[in-house]
Specification:
Helix 2 packs parallel to helix 4 and helix 6 packs parallel to helix 8. Helices cover 30% and strands 20% of the residues. It contains 15 helices and 19 strands.
Length: 528
């Protein structure tokens, strides 16, 4: 009897220790991105079909959020613009056929789905990130429903056909401006929590019936807009660099605290092509889609990256573990979330590894052990809702049992602060120069001030910031170069005591990639 009591006592102690260990491991995670992609193109995830009534659309989305909330998901990346169309009220592009059954047709009775979805997500403490496919214009030409005011009909010179789809030509500056304006419009009008791009930039390479690689039809654009690049490949990558920088500048000029991120395919470059690449043998995002994601991270043009690591642990071409480690060493201080292929993990998968219900949980554990990984994003939403191989249960009962917030990005400006400029006046007269920085805002963050500005042009190398003492109103005769920056903002330190503060005048100019400096901007006066 005494022996049994001792054994029971020991078992209870062991059980308490196990519970304690489990709780302490959970408590270590105070924040983590736990997101899911919701694809709308061709009704992949939502809505389930394009002929649902408005009430059915609303119910379906609410049911989806309720499932995700129970699982522990804290963010959704919702595809609001799948193919130059809109799941929201837009002055630029028509309503999506995958929402209402016919492109250009508004919901009946009318409602704005994006406003509705954001509100419902926020009710459940789930962030809503606007997922945008920037360059796909028409998905599957043969079956697409294209209305008369679609951009592919209004501006056919902006569009090229590649395989079965139509794409915007990224080499045309007006194209990049057009897409950027759409994104800025969304950021201005909707209470979204971030802007997100997937892996589609230049089209994925395809082969014709003769097994020959189909060439992207942009030779004429290269001749018209090439500015000193020796190869069309480098020129294409530069087009993407200009675009990403422009989008980031546009977003931050409106909402400096708005995250902007990209989800590339899982391999930047293979080591066989670049010593800095990963030890893999798979399609390279840099070489095939002309997207240099590492450059975007290095330059701070994106705030996070979500490589789609859609391979299993031990894959001979691209090992999951190898890629997690490689990406974790190339974040340049930005956030890294791992993209998981829930849709591949199923009982009837062609690969034995993907049939294994332990594969995704193992992948999550590997990523979590890496201190440079801040979370995960799962594709696709429908597969997670269907609980493929019990993955949703595993998240709910194990990994995401304790709810946490999305990790903060300390480099982003907090936006709920007061404007503290003494006065701002636009003195631009005569000829309008689109390169002149404009639309200044000054935000207070503790003892720091952040001056940010907007610029409409894209080919900006840097900004020159000039500072002078405001001895007389708007006197800038003694202005000197205070700082040069590639960002569209500067951070200033401010004295705590008002009595010792001096008034300074600031102006900003932009320098193009060809070295031309714009006229100086409006002046802004600040007490420091």
């Amino acid at each position: 009897m005494i022996m049994k009591n001792k054994m029971r006592f020991l078992l209870n102690i062991i059980l308490l220790l196990l519970i304690s260990i489990n709780l302490s491991s959970q408590e270590k995670i105070s924040s983590e991105m736990r997101a899911v992609w919701i694809a709308t193109v061709k009704n992949v995830d939502y809505p389930s079909n394009k002929n649902l009534s408005v009430e059915e659309q609303k119910k379906e989305f609410i049911d989806m959020l309720d499932v995700f909330s129970k699982i522990g998901i804290n963010a959704v990346f919702f595809q609001v613009r799948p193919a130059a169309d809109a799941f929201f009220q837009s002055d630029y592009e028509p309503w999506s056929e995958w929402l209402t059954g016919k492109q250009g047709k508004a919901p009946e009775p009318y409602y704005d789905p994006l406003k509705f979805m954001i509100k419902e997500a926020h009710k459940r403490n789930i962030q809503f990130h606007a997922w945008i496919n920037p360059f796909r214009a028409v998905a599957t030409i043969e079956y697409a429903d294209i209305c008369e005011n679609h951009i592919s009909k209004r501006k056919p010179e902006w569009i090229f056909t590649y395989d079965i789809n139509k794409y915007f030509n990224p080499g045309i500056p007006e194209v990049r401006n057009y897409i950027t304006n759409i994104i800025i419009d969304i950021v201005k009008r909707y209470d979204i929590d971030g802007v997100h791009f997937d892996d589609y930039f230049y089209p994925y390479p395809k082969r014709n019936e003769f097994n020959r690689l189909i060439r992207i039809p942009d030779d004429e654009t290269f001749l018209a807009y090439n500015s000193g690049f020796n190869t069309i490949e480098d020129w294409r990558r530069n087009n993407m660099n200009l675009f990403i920088q422009q989008v980031n500048n546009g977003i931050k000029s409106v909402k400096p605290n708005m995250p902007f991120g990209v989800a590339p395919s899982g391999v930047w470059r293979n080591k066989s092509n670049d010593p800095n690449g990963s030890n893999t043998r798979a399609l390279s995002h840099y070489d095939a889609l002309y997207a240099d994601v590492l450059k975007w991270l290095k330059n701070g043009w994106i705030d996070y990256v979500v490589p789609q690591l859609y391979w299993t642990i031990g894959n001979t071409y691209a090992d999951y573990n190898t890629l997690v480690n490689w990406w974790s060493e190339h974040t340049y201080g930005k956030h890294l979330y791992i993209g998981h292929a829930v849709y591949l993990a199923k009982a009837d998968a062609s690969s034995e590894s993907w049939k294994n219900p332990k594969e995704i949980p193992k992948q999550i554990r590997i990523a979590r052990k890496n201190p440079n990984v801040q979370g995960a994003v799962f594709y696709k939403a429908k597969s997670l809702m269907e609980n493929n191989l019990g993955i949703a249960d595993s998240l709910k009962n194990n990994f995401y049992k304790m709810k946490v917030k999305v990790p903060e990005m300390p480099w982003l400006v907090i936006n709920d602060t007061a404007i503290v400029a003494d006065y701002v006046e636009n003195k631009t007269t005569g000829e309008i120069n689109k390169n002149i920085p404009r639309n200044f805002s000054v935000l207070k963050l503790g003892n720091k001030l952040i001056i940010s500005w907007e610029i409409s042009d894209i080919d900006v190398l840097q900004y020159n910031v000039y500072k002078s003492e405001c001895n007389t109103l708007y006197s800038t005769d003694n202005s000197k170069t205070f700082k040069t920056t590639k960002e569209n903002y500067i951070v200033l330190n401010r004295k705590r005591i008002n009595f010792f503060r001096k008034k300074y005048c600031f102006t900003v100019s932009s320098v193009s990639i060809t070295g031309n400096e714009s006229k100086k901007s409006e002046q802004i006066s600040i007490s420091l």
